[in-house]
Amino acid sequence: MFGCIAAGRLVQTNLQQVDVNKYVFELSDAQTINHLVVFLLGTIPFEPGFAATVHLLWPNKEWQFLGIISNEKPSAIFRLRTTQPNTETFPIGNATLGISIEPLEAVLQQQQAQQMQLVVKSNQMNHAAQIAQKILENLYNYVTSFMQDSSEGVLPLKAFQTWYDNLGRKLANDPNYLSDKIQ
């Protein structure tokens, strides 16, 4: 019913059924996989009102929702690099690709929930970038106040240490010090 291709590898059709409407593919040497294609073979379509969610399970982690496939969208490409745990701390080996056939409404709800999480992550990243920008502006303003009319722009290292200590003290007194400057 399903197939999958890890970029640069042969097609996998060795699907294992683990429960009613739940299937898995074992992905060997998973840390080397960048992209994964999951598709319907075309032999058996979903019954009307049904689709499938696609999930990935790294060792010692929880299932991660990747996306969906349906009769209307019978294949999908997923980028795995962003879902992988840090391979430097431990070797991964195998990962498991899970496919769950569910009512279309439940599938669409999971997809919508994932999209909302991406919006939240994007907002958090924007907030972090804004805080970093404020830190850099604070540093620049502080160190340029020491500059003389010299084209070389030499600055004593002590100025950086003083700035670091001052910013640390301000943050200790008011943890929202930088956040307040953004709004």
From TrEMBL:
InterPro entries: Hikeshi-like_C, Hikeshi-like_N, OPI10. Belongs to the OPI10 family. Residues 5-116 form the Hikeshi-like N-terminal domain. GO terms for cellular component: cytosol; nucleus. Pfam families: Hikeshi-like_C, Hikeshi-like_N. It comes from Apophysomyces ossiformis. GO terms for molecular function: nuclear import signal receptor activity. This is Hikeshi-like domain-containing protein. One of its GO terms (biological process) is protein import into nucleus. Residues 128-179 form the Hikeshi-like C-terminal domain.
